[in-house]
Amino acid sequence: YIYLMKNVHPIDIVNMVLDVSDVVFDIDTERVGDRMSSRLAIPKIRDKTPMLETFKFYISEGVQIDTSRDIA
User: Buried b / exposed e across 34-44, counting CB within 10 Å, b at 16+?
Assistant: First the structure.
């Protein structure tokens, strides 16, 4: 496993790691009120179609997937 923080590492290193990786999980986290809201995307799955849709999830007593749709 390799973990990279966004906007921290030199772009050539990031591109090399992404290129050799079989799967890439893209997780964004933000504070919403008194809760942390996280979004998961899987932009790369080697030999499979990537999941371009993001999923909102919360971590409390386990992982909870928010299956409702955001309407913007």
Answer: eeeebebbbeb
Average pLDDT of every residue of the chain: 85
Percent over 70 (pLDDT), the chain = 94
The domain locations on the chain are 11-65
- Rounded distance, CA 49 to CA 18, Å? 16
Q: Round to whole Å and give the CA distance between 71 and 27.
A: 20
pLDDT digits (tens, 9 = 90+) for 20-44: 999 999 999 888 788 788 889 999 9
